[in-house]
Write a structure and sequence with these properties.
By secondary structure, the chain is an alpha+beta fold. About 45% of the residues lie in helices and about 15% in strands. The strands form four sheets. A seven-stranded antiparallel sheet has the order 5-17-14-12-11-19-20, with helices on one face. Strands 9, 10, 13, 15, 16, 18 and 21 form a seven-stranded mixed sheet that branches. Helix 1 (about 5-20) runs antiparallel to helix 4 (about 80-105). It is elongated, with a radius of gyration of 33 Å.
């Protein structure tokens, strides 16, 4: 095969591989899984200036080099699911090119093409090329190290035609040392390299003296680069990489190995995150070709080019197979280039065994058919069956990913409010809320979006002008108060190709109705100042200006004339945003027997994220107060106000330029005996 023909075929395979890796990149998988979220969060931590050799995530180590590279990449391209995955797409394409070069170097261009074609169309390499995870680095790292080994040392049992340069060995040593900082599986790559060099020395392969010197040079570079990792491992042995590779909690060895081998050809990984459950890694024909290549490599072990693959297989297989929940496809990344080269070797051997041109033509056509079959098989599972599984949607937070993509397409042109029942993260909980996941998945992360907990309130952007209200969770799971529902019922359902059927988005334009409602408060919602201030409990009409760029526009008396202990009181209030709010703003409502007494019942809450609001926004806050069962009968005052959570300082109330305390009174609640 001529170099020009081989190059042309390689380009076509690369184009096919790129299409399978980049097609619907923003929506397949439907979101981010927990491992991807972890690496994306570490990348954000690195971007903020905290760099570590490995991070502890719930007591499990996670190397920091991939997140650091991801942070640098997204600093140039922006955030969001698409750009986070794009980095892995590039790594996957580099792995294809390196695998082709490795196969061609060892066994000829047909072997390189066959191996690259296999990796280009298999589901697992494609999923890894779409994964925001350090494991996406493994195929490229392994193939590059083996390629550099093939270029640095004699592979054919005879003196090399041209001696390798010191640059090759410098790259080899640097890449081996750097691998420790990427994934723990890099240990097996380093072990493979050292054992192969030992094999060359013991078998007295025809290596020039300079190659020996360069080898020591490469080993020194590897040791120097890896020394900080070694020191960090000694300081933190519980989360060091070696322990994650060479120790396992499995109770039996043989079942794990058998399950791993079975995953190659028959029943693959059951984990929906990395595989269509139980789909094998290889089709049966490719598996037979791989086994044929392995047999040929074992038979020809005296030649270094075959022995490199034998040693790589022998060293990489144990940690890949001996693992919890075997087969674990996440570990197979380091083995993929080896399997590809073995398939390429099997293809080359079969092709050369055919004597007639007609038989060889039939064989080439059959190989093309095998590639097309794998493309069809992978496309059907990857783009069809796999993302439709409910388990896949759940594992990848598919609904949140759908909302993120829809907002990316609309927020620049449409004023947006996102409703979520997880407005704030609970203390002590490390897992991200749906809102935090959505922001992580969005590319338009600097877009202006208002966020509200529609279970207790809502935002009317720009005094009620046209806006869309998007529910992050299914609307039926959000307990929207009746008073808020009456406003939402004025909206119209939005239909959009990116919106699934179970996702609710409303277009709400209530500027006129809202203005009329607020105008009525000047006569229907009297407000009294605090009695302890100069002027006492003077009564005024809304709006009432507070400090912190906040104004009370009015309230609705929804509570009954007479309540009983244990009743739930709803207090809807309207607030206008006049500027930047304190980011820890909280609204309070107190029920007290008299203005000077301690509250008998109180609620401190805020239905919106203050940082997301802009001037002229109006907030409807529906505050709930539960009257204690021990509350004595009588008349109680109802007061409201605001304060900053971190300092506890209340916002002052103003009458013109004069301060009138830190609260206002909006009526009474009559409590009868139960």
């Amino acid at each position: 095969m001529s170099n020009r023909l081989a190059f042309s075929i390689a380009v076509l395979i690369l184009l096919a591989g790129f299409f399978l890796r980049a097609y619907e990149l923003a929506s397949l998988p439907p979101g981010l899984n927990e491992i991807e979220v972890t690496d994306a969060r570490i990348a954000e931590t690195v971007r903020q200036g905290r760099a570590e050799i490995f991070f502890s995530v719930d007591g499990i180590g996670r190397e920091g080099t991939y997140p650091a590279a991801l942070a640098a990449f997204t600093a140039l391209t922006g955030g969001g699911t698409f750009t986070l995955r794009l980095f892995s797409v590039f790594l996957g394409m580099l792995a294809l090119a390196a695998t082709y070069a490795l196969g061609k170097r060892l066994f000829g261009a047909p072997a390189g093409l066959a191996g690259m074609a296999l990796l280009a169309v298999l589901m697992l390499p494609i999923v890894l090329s779409r994964a925001v995870a350090a494991e996406s680095f493994a195929p490229f790292h392994a193939s590059m190290v083996f390629l550099l080994m093939a270029r640095a040392y004699p592979m054919f049992g005879r003196p090399m035609r041209s001696e390798p340069t010191v640059t090759t060995f410098a790259m080899l040593g640097g890449l081996l040392g750097l691998g420790f900082y990427i994934t723990p599986m890099s240990f097996v790559i380093a072990m493979t390299s050292v054992l192969f060099i030992g094999y060359l020395v013991v078998t007295r392969q025809p290596m020039p003296r300079r190659v020996y010197s360069f080898t020591w040079f490469a080993l020194v570079i590897m040791i120097v680069v890896a020394t900080p990792y070694l020191i960090a491992s000694l300081q933190n042995p519980a989360i060091a990489g070696a322990g994650r590779v060479f120790s396992s909690r499995i109770t039996t060895l043989i079942p794990s190995v058998l399950a791993g081998l079975n995953g190659l050809l028959f029943v693959g990984d059951r984990n929906v995150i990395w595989n269509l459950p139980e789909r094998p890694l290889l089709d049966l024909v490719s598996g037979v070709l791989m086994l044929l290549g392995l047999v040929l490599a074992l038979r020809s072990f005296r030649q270094p080019r075959f022995m490199l693959i034998v040693i790589a297989s022998a060293i990489c297989l144990p940690p890949v197979l001996i693992t919890d929940f075997s087969p674990n496809f996440l570990r197979f990344g380091v083995l993929l280039p080896v399997l590809a080269v073995l398939v390429g070797l099997g293809v080359t051997a079969l092709y050369r065994s055919l004597r007639s041109d007609e038989a060889r033509v039939v064989f080439v056509v059959a190989l093309a058919g095998l590639v097309l079959f794998n493309i069809q098989w992978t496309a059907r599972d990857l783009f069809g069956a796999w993302p439709r599984l409910q388990e896949t949607q759940t594992a990848y937070h598919g609904r949140v990913g759908d909302v993120a993509r829809y907002l990316d397409a609309t927020v620049r042109d449409t004023t947006t409010v996102v409703c979520t029942g997880q407005l704030r993260q609970n203390a002590g909980v490390r897992q991200l809320t749906n809102l935090q996941l959505m922001v992580l998945m969005m590319h338009q992360q600097d877009a202006t979006i208002r966020f509200a907990d529609c279970g207790s309130g809502i935002v009317f952007p720009n005094a009620g002008e046209a806006a869309q209200i998007v529910f992050l969770e299914p609307r039926e799971t959000v307990n929207v108060p009746a008073y808020v529902v009456r406003w939402l019922e004025r909206g119209t359902i939005i239909r959009h190709p990116l919106l699934p059927d179970d996702m609710t988005a409303l277009r709400l334009d209530v500027a006129g109705v809202l203005a009329d409602t607020l105008g009525l408060f000047t006569t229907s919602a009297p407000v009294a100042y605090a009695p302890e201030t100069l002027g006492g409990m003077d009564v005024t009409a809304p709006p009432v200006r507070f400090g912190g760029n906040l104004s009370l526009l009015g309230y609705v008396q929804t509570w009954a004339a007479t309540s009983r202990p244990g009743d739930l009181i709803s207090v809807p209030t309207y607030w206008r945003i006049d500027g930047q709010l304190p980011n820890d703003l909280v609204l309070f409502a107190h029920v007290q027997v008299d203005p000077a007494a301690s509250p008998a019942a109180q609620t401190d809450t805020l239905a919106v994220l203050p940082d997301s609001l802009l001037p002229r926004d109006i907030v409807l806050q529906n505050t709930y107060l539960t009257l204690p069962f021990t509350l004595p009968a009588g008349n109680y005052s109802l007061s409201i106000g605001a304060y900053e959570r971190n300092s506890g300082a209340r916002l002052p109330v103003y009458d013109g330029d004069d301060e009138r305390g830190t609260r206002v009174f909006i009526g009474e609640i009559s409590v009868a005996a139960r």
